[in-house]
């Protein structure tokens, strides 16, 4: 399946043509002087060439860390959820002496989305080509905290297969960055993140289920449901009388900002970090063994019991329609990476 991308590169040129035509046709009326717009106010905060340099510096830091498996080499070019997640992946790679579980971020890009802003912090986005293994493209976000600070990788998701991405402004024009409480959307960015976390936790029992696309169309919710069903089946003892318990909860990451950029239709793409927690408890006397290579590495040295808890750092990218739209919120992509494990 293919991933489709769209841009709006001519909207200002077309608007200028319409205004010029209107002034020509209205030549008999007195001309009303209008102030010329400040060029800085309609220019993106970062040039395409400068953005290329930023991406190259980030990729160099990721490559160095991948070769050395040393998380300290990331700090100059990686921050926020991405730093915590990549640090955990490199630590697992150190334990396993194998980096095959470290997320691949391709260095070639299908599309870039540059911010239209004169304030900080500011965020840029890029969509990669598929990986060498033909996995779907990644959506990445980089932030700059202050005028002279470097742009750093803030987070990433894997786009869902076959997704049609919303259109964004041409990078030469720039796209508007939105505040967490922006009310021009069907749901504010901060509310949609909290509501999606509730949906991941409570499923069809969530009060917000009708705000989002159907569960069977959301690959992250499908994954969590199938995981829960599989784990419950494994927790069922032979006598079929007493079952173990399985729970998964999701909450917005309180330490991470929400990254939001305007789409061409007046909606927005929202990128956010979530904290996921999975807890399993088997019958007394049973022993729960980790089922993945990551969990095995994170549990190294711990004595197994009938309880097992896993922590996940999840990233989600959501399309939120504009206020008044009859569209539902849609998942564009996600990442679901285990970052901790314990036997309690």
Automatic annotation (TrEMBL):
Give the signal peptide range.
1-31
Q: Key word RNA-binding present in the record?
A: no
Q: Which residues form a coiled coil?
A: none
Q: Which residues form the DUF8094 domain?
A: 43-341
What this protein is called in its record is DUF8094 domain-containing protein
- Keywords assigned by UniProt, alphabetized: Signal
Pfam families (alphabetical): DUF8094 (PF26366)
Is Signal included in the keywords of this UniProt record?
A: yes
């Amino acid at each position: 399946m293919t991933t489709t991308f769209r841009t709006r590169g001519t909207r200002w040129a077309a608007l200028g043509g319409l205004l010029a035509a209107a002034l020509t046709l209205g030549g008999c009326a007195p001309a009303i002087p209008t102030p010329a717009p400040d060029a800085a106010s309609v220019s993106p905060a970062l040039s395409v060439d400068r953005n290329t340099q930023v991406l190259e510096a980030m990729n160099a830091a990721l490559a160095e860390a991948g070769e050395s498996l040393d998380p300290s080499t990331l700090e100059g070019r990686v921050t926020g959820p991405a730093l915590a997640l990549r640090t955990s992946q490199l630590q697992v790679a150190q334990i396993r002496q194998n980096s095959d579980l470290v997320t691949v971020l391709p260095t070639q890009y299908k599309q870039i989305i540059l911010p239209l802003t004169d304030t900080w912090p500011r965020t840029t986005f890029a969509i990669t080509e598929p990986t060498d293994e033909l996995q779907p493209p990644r959506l990445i976000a980089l932030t700059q905290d202050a005028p002279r600070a470097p742009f750093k990788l803030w987070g990433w998701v894997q786009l869902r297969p076959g997704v049609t991405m919303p259109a964004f402004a041409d990078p030469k024009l720039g796209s508007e960055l939105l505040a967490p409480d922006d009310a021009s959307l069907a749901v504010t960015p901060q509310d949609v993140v909290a509501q999606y976390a509730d949906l991941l936790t409570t499923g069809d029992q969530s009060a917000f289920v009708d705000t989002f696309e159907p569960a069977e169309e959301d690959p992250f919710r499908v994954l969590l449901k199938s995981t829960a069903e599989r784990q419950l089946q494994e927790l069922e003892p032979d006598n079929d009388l007493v079952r173990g318990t399985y729970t998964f909860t999701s909450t917005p990451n309180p330490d991470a900002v929400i990254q939001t950029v305007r789409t061409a239709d007046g909606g927005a793409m929202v990128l956010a970090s979530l904290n996921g927690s999975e807890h399993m408890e088997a019958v007394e006397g049973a022993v729960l063994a980790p089922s993945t290579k990551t969990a095995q590495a994170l549990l190294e040295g711990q004595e197994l019991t009938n309880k097992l808890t896993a922590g996940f750092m999840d990233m989600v990218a959501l399309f939120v329609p504009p206020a008044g739209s009859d569209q539902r919120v849609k998942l564009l992509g996600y990442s679901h990476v285990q970052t901790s494990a314990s036997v309690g």
